[in-house]
Predict the structure.
Amino acid sequence: MAIVIDGKAVAQTIRSEIADEVRRLSEKYGKVPGLAVVIVSNRKDSQSYVGMKRKAFCELGIKSFDIDLPEQVSEADLIKQVHELNANPDVHGILVQLPLPKHINEEKVLTEISLEKDVDGFHPLNIGKLAMKGREPLFLPCTPKACLELLSRSGVSIKGKKAVVVGRSNIVGLPASLLLLKADATVTIVHSHTKDPESIIRQADIVIAAAGQPKMIKGSWIKPGAAVIDVGTNAIDDPSKKSGYRLVGDVDFEEASKVAGWITPVPGGVGPMTVTMLLKNTLDGAKRTLEQSN
Ligand code: NDP
């Protein structure tokens, strides 16, 4: 049976490390890290996700700057807001909650965030540096960073291993594959046009699944002893639940946990780690700025 990686417990350990560092910064510089969360719209899911993030910052002593803009805000006004945050020395990280309303060009807005405050790690220059040998991005995107942190804190070595990433999105699959490559794995990316994904996945020592396809990866697709990180978060009908649904990953957990060496559950695996990596990025951004300016 696989070791089940407890994302909640790992996240808790990292959060207490962050809280210690925040206290240290505050004693040394008289300042705490500041994170601005910009939310446009009154979408319930965005509101609740952002609410969760804001609560997490406050618990660790990170100052939260809340910018709530109406759904009808113009692209120019949103960009003006981003520029103000770029110029505010108490703000060390800026997060613009996606998706944005249709009349706003997401790419344009994200590119306006100062590179030094891009705690989501989505700026094309940060991703570009991640892809280049010998260059270091200022920030790594949170979910892929969470995947690698879970592997390293579970004692799974990456160097020289065969890794397969399922999915190639800008926010998860692609940066996860670049991170694994930087860590010296031999990386294959599986996407929706890949022929015979099963035989490719079966060769992997490390699988990162981020396709958004419920239970697509069966136990028989997993190499015995492999490390399986399941990013997929899919709601499927479940009449036995009060809500009428439950969350499952991209991996068939029941089957795969009998074969894998390590596996993350859904929920309780990568999810709790993603927000934690945002907090870590904010802390790192603040440390960099405070150390440079003092
Ligand atoms: P996207 O829909 O942007 O990307 C999905 C990727 O999976 C695409 O590259 C697509 O290929 C590929 N794909 C889709 N179907 C298949 C298939 N049958 N076989 C192989 N590849 C396939 O999703 P995201 O990257 O944003 O998210 C992926 C999953 O991770 C979702 O379930 C999401 O909810 C979850 N997630 C979880 C987070 C967490 O913190 N736990 C954070 C972010 C996401 P192609 O490019 O060819 O279309």
